[in-house]
């Protein structure tokens, strides 16, 4: 018989636990002191589990990493140079991947159904990654800057952004508004909260490189490109998660992050429900924002005083799809359940990433992991969703036992990931009172 991948032991306890407070309407000033005082909308702490989707031009070469362009053009890593030499003609540029990002198999309804089957409660799509325009030669730079307002073909966006004219999924490649289609399907076919990832900077954008060469004393790039895009996606698609990334080592003052967030919390169409992360400029990560990410694949293994998220990948080495991935490169369902349980027990949310192909298909390996997670949650979700951390996150006697708690119902869940070889489970942390503590049920899922 196959070993179970997670079991939930339910106990009723008698001691009280404080309930989280709900936010009152307030006006927020464009300062971190004021913005950080905004209570996190309660829905985010309740949902616990979301799906990250990294999709973009990097899905065309689908080799090595979603940082393909950087490793190929900037760092000139040998495997990437050889890959291009072998598979593409001389003179092939990154922009030439644009028309090859075809998305002919992209079916937003199908994606929504697959995401729903995972048991996840929210989804975050990359609306724009770090991919800027070509690294324009210095001699061409001045004329490019002067014509920028008329020819804005820079960071590739998955929506028809007027700030990325002729370099977006509506004008190039799919000729479709990917963000709009997925948002509509998610909202019409599921109860998932819809969110968007957005990179502040772009690796090779001439405006950003110009500002960087001036130690970010000028702000041409955020004024002309990054900030207008943020306002555009919020007003057009009303995401409930705004996942910022990629500060380019520029301070939050360069990005005017506090000004934008004040608008987001006070005036935007999602001001009451939107949640944001902590990547709003150099020095803000794990310090400012709605919830903390601290680093990619962050899993501290202990309780934090602030709400946090473990954003991680099923593929151990890449966020985007890789054609050269081995089976051993993918986390097993047992490993993924372990990540989920540990994260939730310590007060975090798990944001688990998949990478579709350039033609819009979710690879079978990702579909399998999503479905497996959904099956596990269909049995054990009671111990995950709408829980809070208990006074002990894991057991002091038996390794691999993690606790979650529902204070309103006064229920403690003990989740153990391996069946005890002795056939007896010994718990050192719960302090029950005879005839007043009840063991109600044991639930598990055998793959």
Automatic annotation (TrEMBL):
Origin: domain of life: Eukaryota
Protein name per UniProt: Plasma alpha-L-fucosidase
